[in-house]
Amino acid sequence: MSPQLYPLAVKLRTLFSRHYAVLYVCVIGLLLAFAVFSLYQVLLVTSEPSTASNTSGAFDQSTIKKINALNDSTEQPGTFALPSPRPNPFVE
């Protein structure tokens, strides 16, 4: 080390030895802020809706027949009958 840099190195060494905890917390805080910002950017990019549509707008004849076969809400439903009860297997 040159004689001119020696006093500077001593000053830097004493600075780091006195304030290493503050420097450590600052570095960790900056790394944490960078990680949060990076995750935010990734989530922002993936949450954008895609512009491509996957559904087709055409109906085939079988679908049209099924829609036409549906009943109106104004029509009376048919008779409703419950199924016959099952026999009890534990009766002798």
Question: Care to describe what's here?
Answer:
Helix content is 53%, strand content 0%. The protein has helices at residues 6-46, 61-68. The longest helix has 41 residues, at 6-46.
Count the strands?
A: 0
Biggest sheet architecture:
none
Derived structural class? mainly alpha
Number of helices: 2
Mean pLDDT: 82
Distance N terminus to C terminus? Answer: 107 Å
Instruction: Give me the Rg, rounded.
Output: 38 Å
Q: Identify the overall geometry.
A: elongated
Order of secondary-structure elements = HH
In terms of per-residue confidence, which ranges show pLDDT below 50 for 5 or more consecutive residues?
A: none
Beta-strand portion reads under 5%
- The percentage helix is 40-55%
Main traits of this protein?
92 residues; mainly alpha; elongated
Brief overview:
The chain has 92 residues and is mainly α. It has two helices and no strands. The protein has helices at residues 6-46, 61-68.
Write the layout of secondary structure elements.
Layout: H1 6-46, H2 61-68
